[in-house]
Amino acid sequence: NTSDFTKEIEVMIKGIEDHSEKSIDAMNNEKEEVKTGKQIAEQLFKSIDLIFNDIIEIGENLSHLRKSIE
Q1: Residues of the chain falling short of pLDDT 70
Q2: What is the distance between the alpha carbons of residues 18 and 26, in angstroms, rounded to a whole number?
Q3: Does pTM surpass 0.70?
Q4: Pairwise CA distance, residues 48 & 41, whole Å
Q5: C-alpha span between 25 and 17 (Å, rounded)
Q6: How far apart are CA 16 and CA 8, in angstroms?
Q7: Helix ranges restricted to H, the chain
Q8: What gap in Å lies between CA 29 and CA 33, rounded to an integer?
Q9: What pLDDT was estimated at residue 13?
Q10: Residues 14-27 pLDDT 10s
Q11: Rounded to an integer, what is the distance from CA 17 to the centroid of its chain?
Q12: How far is the C-alpha of 44 from the C-alpha of 36, rounded, in Å?
């Protein structure tokens, strides 16, 4: 029956639309997770840079201290 066939096609198209929407939602969620990961990595690199600068400053202070002791 043509009517049954048409309804089957409608159901199939609706299924494709639903899967497409779910795929788009999943991609948007992944995009947000990547953005968050990037922000965390940037903060991590800033923290490492600050730690590195502190280590250099400590080394310089120890060098000055050693020279003043000699």
Answers
A1: none
A2: 12
A3: no
A4: 10
A5: 12
A6: 12
A7: 2-69
A8: 6
A9: 95
A10: 999 999 999 999 99
A11: 28
A12: 12
